[in-house]
Design brief:
The structure is a single chain. This protein has three helices and nine strands, in the order βββαββββββαα. It is mostly beta strands. It has one domain (5-131): Metal Binding Protein, Guanine Nucleotide Exchange Factor, Chain A, CATH 2.170.150.70. It is globular and about 30 Å long.
């Protein structure tokens, strides 16, 4: 049985589900991802476009072309970064999901490696250490 992941934006106007486990989980440090997230890096996991289903709020999704081939999607109401994808070329049939928008619940067994006051375990729960990569200028 395939695990289904659900997520939403900060104001919950938009909710979605992933019909497969995110692949190519990464922490991107490029300037576009840093500025888009307002943080030192952005954590993403990619899935085939066909594996993303918008459950609610499709009309609240706003897009921004951050480069000739990259489209970023976010909530028009609260500004949460949700997805980015390539509009052409290799991997244009995949979508990268902002992992912070996934609605995951930390379990004690999966947080032992990460003792932070406000746990950032959502990325750790999704991946095995051998699948973690740094994308650099990929997006």
């Amino acid at each position: 049985m395939t695990e289904v992941y659900q997520g939403s934006c900060l104001c919950t106007a938009i909710s979605y589900e992933l019909l497969t486990t995110p692949k190519a989980v990464s922490h991107c440090h490029c300037s576009q991802c840093r500025k888009g997230h307002g943080a030192a890096f952005a954590s993403y996991g990619s899935v085939p476009r066909s594996a993303v289903q918008i459950l609610n709020g499709a009309g609240h999704i706003t897009t921004y072309s951050s480069s000739e081939s990259v489209l970023r999607e976010f909530c028009a109401q609260c500004g949460s970064t949700l997805f980015w994808s390539r509009s052409q070329g290799e991997f244009s049939d995949w979508v990268s999901i902002a992992l912070g928008t996934l609605d995951l619940h930390a379990s004690e067994a999966k947080t032992r490696l990460c003792r932070l006051q406000s746990s950032l375990v959502y990325a750790i729960q999704l991946i095995a250490s051998d699948r973690l990569t740094t994308m650099g200028r990929f997006c």
